Amino acid sequence: MKPPGFKKKLLLSSIAIVLFSGLYRVGPLHAACGSSVSSCKSCHEIQKQKPVSNQGKWHVDHANLDACDYCHAGQPGATDKARAHQGMVNPFDDLQFNCGSCHPSDWQQKAASYGAK
Predict the structure, then answer these.
(1) How many folded domains does the chain comprise?
(2) Which domain holds residue 54?
(3) Could you report the per-residue pLDDT of 48-103, keeping only the tens digit for each?
(4) Do residues 53 and 60 touch, judged by C-beta distance below 8 A?
């Protein structure tokens, strides 16, 4: 004789196994480019191509924001490199806009502290 609630527990356990089995996959790890966790930082770090953490003090200080597109534009949710880089801009072309969007009152000092002119 099975204890009360056995079928319900078995069903819930089975559902949990099916749902969580999708979280684990066998095979090499690839960049999350284009997935729901995609970002410029994740692609560059995982692929070891110009990792954000190696791109100077500004990037090191701001990398935790994972907001590369605020300054560089581009398409952080794109599934391939060409589309991800489409529309990118040089943030030094308009420091007031790029730095000032987050630091409206002291953008010049912030930019200068990182060596921007």
Answers:
(1) 1
(2) 31-113
(3) 788 777 788 888 888 777 778 888 888 887 878 898 899 999 888 999 988 888 89
(4) yes
Closest to 48 in 3D by CA, of 30, 74, 64 = 30
On whether residue 65 sits in a domain, the answer given is yes
Nearest of 103, 96, 102, 101 to residue 117 by alpha carbon: 96
Residue type, 29: L
Q: Is the dihedral of CA 108, 110, 111, 117 positive or negative?
A: positive
Q: Per the domain annotation, does 24 fall within a domain?
A: no
On whether residue 13 sits in a domain, the answer given is no
75 close to 87: Cβ distance less than 8 angstroms: yes
C-alpha neighbours within 13 Å on the C-beta side of residue 5: 3
